[in-house]
């Protein structure tokens, strides 16, 4: 496989994940959310109260993009950005009760995506796939 084929394949996988996520959000009545919003919510469900810089890092976006995503989620009443009580230069993002209430739907969507992605792969193959993709990501 050539480098171009690898890059094309990775791009196509990313595109499919985005499309399936958008479809899943719509099917669950969350059509106001884009896949990138779901990623923010998922990261906050894992660790609520993240600093904006850390949130941006965890979703793989720059800080300005993360800020725009948080602003939209705040407008929807799903998150609340607040200045850190110890360092006013830091803004932390907290889920609202409504945001936390999306956990079952987001968990189900993630399970659906992983089930589709891993279909036909054994546990050792899944582990090897993750190991190799992490190496590719580190290389980039």
Task: Give your account of this protein's structure.
With 140 residues, the protein is mainly alpha-helical. It has helices at residues 3-27, 35-46, 52-59, 63-75, 97-100, 103-117, 123-139, and strands at 50-51, 79-83, 91-95. It contains 7 helices and 3 strands, in the order ααβααββααα. β2 (79-83) and β3 (91-95) form a beta hairpin. The longest helix has 25 residues, at 3-27. The two termini are 18 Å apart.
Write the layout of secondary structure elements.
Blueprint: H1 3-27, H2 35-46, E1 50-51, H3 52-59, H4 63-75, E2 79-83, E3 91-95, H5 97-100, H6 103-117, H7 123-139
Antiparallel strand pairs: 1-3, 2-3
Helix pairs in contact: 1-6, 3-4
Q: Which properties best describe this structure?
A:
140 residues; mainly alpha; 3-stranded antiparallel β-sheet
The main β sheet shows up as: 3 strands, antiparallel
Question: Which of globular, elongated, flat, extended, rod-shaped describes the shape?
Answer: globular
- Terminus-to-terminus distance: 18 Å
DSSP summary: helix tally: 7
The class by helix and strand makeup works out as: mainly alpha
Mean pLDDT: 94
**How many individual β-strands?**
3
The name of the CATH architecture is Orthogonal Bundle
Helix content: 55-70%
Low-confidence stretches: none
Indicate the CATH class. Mainly Alpha
What do we call the CATH homologous superfamily? Winged helix-like DNA-binding domain superfamily/Winged helix DNA-binding domain
Q: What number of domains?
A: 1
The CATH topology comes to Arc Repressor Mutant, subunit A
The neighbouring-strand order within the major sheet is 1-3-2
């Amino acid at each position: 496989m050539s480098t171009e084929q690898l890059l094309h394949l990775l791009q196509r996988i990313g595109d499919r994940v985005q499309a399936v996520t958008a479809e899943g959000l719509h099917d669950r009545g969350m059509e106001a959310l884009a896949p990138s919003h779901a990623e923010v919510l998922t990261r906050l469900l894992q660790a609520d109260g993240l600093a904006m810089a850390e949130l941006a890092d965890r979703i793989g976006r720059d800080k300005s993009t993360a800020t725009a995503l948080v602003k939209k989620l705040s407008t929807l009443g799903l998150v609340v950005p607040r200045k850190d009580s110890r360092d006013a230069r830091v803004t932390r993002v907290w889920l609202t009760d409504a945001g936390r209430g999306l956990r079952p739907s987001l968990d189900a969507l993630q399970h659906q995506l992983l089930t589709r992605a891993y279909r036909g792969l054994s546990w050792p193959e899944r582990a090897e796939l993750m190991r190799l993709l992490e190496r590719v990501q580190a290389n980039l």
